[in-house]
Amino acid sequence: MSGPLSFLQEYGSEILRLTIEHSRLTAMSVGAAILFSVPVGIILTRARKVAAPVLAFASIIQTIPSLALFGLVIPILIAVNLPIIGFVPAFIALFLYALLPILRNTHTGIRQVDPAILEAATGIGMTDRQILWRIELPLSIPVIMAGIRTSTVISVGVATLAALIGAGGLGELIFRGLRTINYKLMLAGAIPAAALAMFMDFLLGRAEIFLTPKGLKTKE
Question: pLDDT at residue 220 above 50?
Answer without folding.
Answer: no
